[in-house]
């Protein structure tokens, strides 16, 4: 699409560093294990973990997955440590953060923030880099 002399590529998404790096974000999450305060807010939890105070610009995890898919930012296979893992559970798309080795951390469908084996939560998942394009 072109607007005047400017060409807009819908798949070219500028990438900036998150306010918190991967290990700091994972530590932030692990410090909250057991907390039920994040029930039904997995996307907000991940955004806050990576240091963003402002809204992500996405309505929910399903909206985020649609946006990430449109911009070709979703990956399949084993999620590396620090990646956002988008999975189907209880008829909803949810998000957690990969600890590596098939483990994730975040507010789980059962309620509190926990670390869990991804394969016990869902058989249907994709992952992305921890990217919050509207958080700046």
Identify the notable features of this structure and list them briefly:
endopeptidase fold (from Nostoc punctiforme), alpha+beta, 136 residues, 5-stranded antiparallel β-sheet
Radius of gyration: 15 Å
What is the mean predicted local confidence, pLDDT? 88
Largest sheet, spatial ordering of strands: 6-5-4-3-7
- Would you state the CATH class? Alpha Beta
Low-confidence stretches: 1-9
Helix content: 10-25%
Please name the CATH topology.
endopeptidase fold (from Nostoc punctiforme)
* Tally of structural domains: 1
What is the β-strand count? 7
Q: Overall 3D geometry?
A: globular
Provide the structure class: alpha+beta
Write down the secondary-structure element order. Answer: EEHHHEEEEHE
Strand coverage percent:
15-25%
Note the gap between the termini. 25 Å
**Mind describing the biggest β-sheet?**
5 strands, antiparallel
By oligomeric state, this entry counts as single chain
Structural write-up:
By secondary structure, this protein is α+β, with helices and mostly antiparallel strands. Strand 1 and strand 2 form a beta hairpin. It is built from 4 helices and 7 strands; from the N terminus they run E-E-H-H-H-E-E-E-E-H-E. The two termini are 25 Å apart. It has one domain (19-128): endopeptidase fold (from Nostoc punctiforme). Mean pLDDT is 88; it is low at 1-9. Strands 6-5-4-3-7 form a 5-stranded antiparallel sheet. The longest helix has 10 residues, at 61-70. Helix 1 crosses helix 2.
């Amino acid at each position: 699409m072109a607007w005047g002399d400017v060409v807009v590529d819908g798949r070219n998404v500028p990438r900036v560093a998150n306010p918190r790096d991967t290990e700091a974000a994972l530590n932030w999450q692990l410090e909250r294990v057991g907390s039920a305060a994040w029930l039904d807010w997995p996307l907000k939890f991940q955004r806050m973990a990576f240091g963003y105070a402002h809204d992500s610009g996405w309505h929910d995890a399903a909206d985020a997955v649609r946006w990430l898919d449109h911009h070709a930012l979703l990956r399949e296979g084993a999620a590396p440590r620090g990646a956002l893992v988008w999975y189907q559970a209880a008829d909803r798309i949810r998000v957690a953060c990969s600890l590596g080795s098939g483990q994730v951390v975040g507010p789980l469908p059962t309620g509190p923030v926990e670390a869990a084996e991804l394969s016990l939560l869902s058989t249907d998942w994709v992952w992305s880099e921890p990217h919050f394009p509207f958080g700046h």
